[in-house]
TrEMBL record:
Name assigned to this protein: Uncharacterized protein
Domain of life: Eukaryota
PROSITE patterns in UniProt: PROKAR_LIPOPROTEIN
Amino acid sequence: MFHQIKNLIPNFGPPNFPTSILSGCFFHLCQNIYLVVIHFGLKTLYDDNGDFAKQIRSLPALTLLPIPDVIPTFVEIKAQFQAESEHVLTYFEEYYIGGIQSHLSHPRKAAKYDILLWNEQSYIDAEIIQANAGVTKLRRKDQVRQETRILNILNEPTKTALEKVMALAQIISLKKS
């Protein structure tokens, strides 16, 4: 039965549904990264070391950058990461960025999830508007404050992409439900 379902998947792609838009989910990307942190035994370090946690949270913050800035900023982030986080970086690079190849003509292997799928930069305004519609009044004030901070960071013209990602990492939580 699994094989039959697997064979149906190509029938649900964009060629058969030309008006469909495929996009990833920021929440699930954060959860995937957090599960990798747990899998490699880094949960205690993540919980106890604020600098390490901020570095890990900088990975999902890449989703909010314009697509041309994602890979160069990832390379900058990677250079600053602690040695303990090597497994998390390898996972993120393989699944979301694309690994480095030895061939000069193709500098990166294809990522398992294309950047166009998980990059949320083009959806930021629409998602904020949509999220506000479903939030209770008590939570709306905090959510609006956080969204305003995100937009202010992203729209700051004097900050580099790396500075924006590190600022966003301050307000991203991998464990929120």
